[in-house]
# Entry
Amino acid sequence: MQVRRVSRDAIDWNSVPVPASFLQHPFWAEFKNRYGWVPFFFIVDENFISVLVRKIPHLGSIAYIPMGPESTTQLESSRQDLLLTLVKEIKPLLPSDTFLLRFDPPWEKDDQKLSIKKAGMDIQPPDTVILDLLPSEENILAQMKPKWRYNIRLTAKKGVRVCSYFGKETITKGLPVFWELYKETAKRDGIAIHSQKYYQDLLETVLDYPKTAKIIIYTADHEGDSLAAIVVLFYGNQATYLYGASSNIKRNLMPAYALQWQAITEAKAAGCLTYDFYGIPPSDDPTHPMYGLYRFKTGFGGTLVHRIGSLDIPVRTFRYHVYSILETLRTLWFKKIKKIFNKR
# Structure
């Protein structure tokens, strides 16, 4: 394996494949750099890999590889060897205090055992549903559950209006609507969200890469009331549903269905081959707290994808154990304790 570090400006996209996932593209690394993640770019056997490094106070640095590396082999032993060899080669090129390399490879889960340690939490959603956009709009509708087709048509009959904001209007017009609805959603569902500046920084970063990606914010309103909004990223031949928000009023008008259908049809018209709903619970389990999300996203049809999730390769064991404990406590706070306080 040949590995060399490169600067962003030195990447020759004519000689290396463009990353399949937006999470591996330099624009995403540039965005995350605004929030404490330092990007390290590598050419590994003529393939590009983006590594995000973050300093953890009093412990050292962690290195995170989102949706990488890509691999064509289906053998777990070969995949394991790939990760271990990659760690061996790039570790000397990372900060000397790096104690953990965490991978989120785009590999689907299977029955084979992987001896590499599973991370205590998944960073990227390992389970998702991906809609094929090659069929006609009529056939895409036909693959949906009947109630989903009904709800899409209901929104039109009830006068729900969908607006699409792209370019600078994502910031001036789309974001203000989305943000107010997102705050309402977070309070209702007890979820943690970033600051408004975080989402504005994402929009601004994407605007700096017009030939690489674009974001469209879709909003739904009815008689002057903002009902719902979604944020969709277009990258390569895929559209990805990143964020969604909704109001507490007029939920019977089913605005979320109108938004998804508008995004799906626009993604198809833009030449996208797939539409990724980006995150569902791992199974059709009515007892899961996010079961409603599972039903909503899978109702549009598509293929269920179950990836292997986040994998940890520690290079300094003691520091890694301390970090794992702190990470577990942080997860407990945001997913359990904080929700209890938010609902009071």
